[in-house]
Amino acid sequence: MLRFTAAKDFNEDVRGYLVLNMTPTNMFVNEANEAAEVLKDYPEMHLANSRVCDRKAHRDAWAESMTILKRKMIKPSKKSKR
Question: Is 45 exposed, middle or buried (0-12, 13-18, 19+ CB in 10 A)?
Fold first, then answer.
């Protein structure tokens, strides 16, 4: 925030935007909304309407060097575990 304030000293018209990143897609997890509330304390920055979400399926597939489709194809079904 300090750097943005310093930049504003050189250019009064500069506008700063914040994007929430790695927000959960689970509707029962409220962390992204809580973070948005905290960011209201910084009126010199504008909160973007878009959020970058964290998807567990993407994270798991990436960890195994696979695409989501490949991982879905080889993932054993719950019925076969019986």
Answer: middle
